[in-house]
Amino acid sequence: DLTATAVSDAGLEHVVALPKLRSLVLRGTKVTDAMLDKIAANESIEHLDVTDTGVTVVGATKLAAARPRMI
User: Residue 46: which residues within 8 A CB-CB, separation 6 or more?
Assistant: First the structure.
């Protein structure tokens, strides 16, 4: 749970690569659409919360189409 931390796209690079990561809560962080493809590529992530981040509706919609059960 990275809620309200200073994590950004650059800081998330190593986290999203963790092979056993199941849930990723990024609520209130500086994460943007730029990370969504990398997050979607990690098949082990089952739950993602990007409330109050830099993720746009367009980005979230694209992610939901790619990984409907994640978001």
Answer: 22, 23, 69, 70
Q: pTM of this prediction?
A: 0.89
pLDDT at 71 over 80: no
Q: Which residues pair with 24 in a beta bridge?
A: 48
3-state secondary structure of 46: coil
Tell me the H-state helices in 1-71: 9-12, 36-41, 57-66
Q: Are 5 and 26 in contact (CB under 8 A)?
A: no
Q: How many residues does the chain have?
A: 71
Q: Is 16 exposed, middle or buried (0-12, 13-18, 19+ CB in 10 A)?
A: buried
Give the amino acid at 68. P
